[in-house]
Amino acid sequence: MAVGMSIASEGGGYNGRMTSFVVLSCMMAATGGILFGYDIGISGGVTSMEPFLKRFFPEVYTKMKEDTEISNYCKYDSQLLTLFTSSLYVAGLIASFFASSVTIACGRKPSILVGGVAFLAGSALGGAAFNLYTLILGRILLGVGIGFANQSVPLYLSEMAPFRHRGAINNGFHLSLGIGVLSANLINYSTEKIKGGWGWRVSLGMGAVPAALLTLGALFLSETPISLIQRSNNHQKAKLMLQRVRGTEDVQAELDDLIKASEMSKTIENPFWKILETKYRPQFVMAIAIPLFQQVTGINVVGFYAPVIFRTIGLGESASLMSTVATGVVGICGTLLSMLIVDKFGRRVLLMVGGIQMLISQIIVGSIMATQLGGHGGLSKVNGFAVLIFICTYVSGFSLSWGPLGFLIPSEIFPLEIRSSGQSITVAVSFLFTFIIAQTFLAMLCHFKSGSFFFFGGWVAVMTVFVYLFLPETKNVPIEQMDRVWREHWFWKRIVGQEYQVSKVDEKE
């Protein structure tokens, strides 16, 4: 049974090449990923800083420092502490649906701009927070910023990139995310040493730097050709932009497909209902499954709570923060490798190889903690180093596969008429499960202990099988021809094949 296949684009696809204009535009837009990554790294670091805990979460600080009876796994179990981390994702979930309307009506550029401004305001408020309420309000503004950025930036990258290099260009978003995580880890490691206990303010406030870069950069971004067509009837302007983007004057074939897709999208009154139709069933399933699977890998547990995990196994405050720097470097290296090979080997191979690597790593980490870490004390240096090594191995597997491809695949599979709504559903599902995991993990760690790693490992096994059976290969397929991959897939053709034949008959009539 052929469960997946690589489909070459018809007639070799469209004309065009990688231009410096596309590279610069996509580099600027991809800085939106730094916002997300910076927050993931910063929130995990500051929640392990004793002055921050003492000021905002004194009960956690007391348990950590004074309660000698409490288990290693339960020292950080606090719903208020997890609310600090997870409140951002509730805001992001809601904001992503508003971002869809802005992206359709105003374009990708304004949506990116709104994301930068909101994150800038949230960073300033977080750095200046004087009580828990202002701290949470700052997190909500950060969530709005990330909601808009995560909705619009991957779309922008996929629409601007030549189809042969779409994977590498779009993976730049996750590379920026990794740079954001690493930057945050380095800043946390430095600010933790500031005397006076106010280093956490610097950590939170420094988020304004990437936000300012994105905001200023968005002012100079050009709209994507499809967005220009979608929002006006000036096809000549769109053609000139497409020629500039592709580096050739021979763009008529791609322009015709974009115009056709735009005309179809304008007949759709409610794209959120439209995506529920049978002919869009594969895209709808992927809009839910891919972000769900991306979150239940457990990666955000490592991102948010890596310092907490490293302190759980007995490392000191500085050592735990330094360990997160190591995982950040590994993450960036994995994403760079993914950028180099994703358009050569395809999406499916990377997802399955990365899934197997993550599964093995989680089993080993869970086994070491189950057999060597009791309720009190810490691991030996050898076992602690082994945990760090295999967490890094896990991070590299994620960064090769589900990290960048979790953003890439949803951004390339939706036809224009449901593209913005489909991306909003993807982002909303991602934020929903990020919230659930962020809010429950410290309680899970307290009750499941080392079993938490086996829990996430089980999900990794399920999603790897899912990819093998149900995800078709999308490399080298132009976005506007993507419907073919579903019609030629062993499973999805049973659902969408008949719908496609009916629509072709209607077109002829």
Structure commentary:
- This protein is an all-alpha fold and 509 residues long.
- It is 77% helix and 0% strand.
- The longest helix has 33 residues, at 416-448.
- Mean pLDDT is 84; it is low at 1-12 and 504-509.
In terms of per-residue confidence, which ranges show pLDDT below 50 for 5 or more consecutive residues?
A: 1-12, 504-509
What pattern of helices and strands is seen along the backbone?
Answer: HHHHHHHHHHHHHHHHHHHHHHHH
Compute the CA-based radius of gyration: 23 Å
Q: Total number of helical segments?
A: 24
Q: For the terminal residues, how far apart are their CA atoms?
A: 36 Å
- Estimate the strand proportion: under 5%
Q: Please, what is the average pLDDT? A: 84
Secondary structure: helix percent: over 70%
What can be said about the biggest beta sheet? none
Let me know the number of strands: 0
Which secondary-structure class do the elements indicate?
Answer: mainly alpha
3D shape: globular
Keywords:
509 residues, mainly alpha, 24 helices, 77% helix
Q: Which secondary structure elements does this structure contain, and how are they paired or packed?
A:
Elements: H1 20-30, H2 32-46, H3 50-56, H4 58-65, H5 79-106, H6 108-127, H7 132-160, H8 166-191, H9 199-205, H10 208-220, H11 225-231, H12 235-246, H13 252-265, H14 271-274, H15 281-296, H16 299-312, H17 317-345, H18 347-372, H19 381-400, H20 402-413, H21 416-448, H22 451-470, H23 483-487, H24 493-508
Helix pairs in contact: 1-7, 1-8, 2-7, 2-8, 2-16, 3-4, 5-6, 5-7, 5-21, 6-7, 6-9, 6-10, 7-8, 7-20, 7-21, 8-9, 8-17, 8-20, 11-12, 11-13, 15-20, 15-21, 16-17, 17-18, 17-19, 18-19, 18-22, 19-20
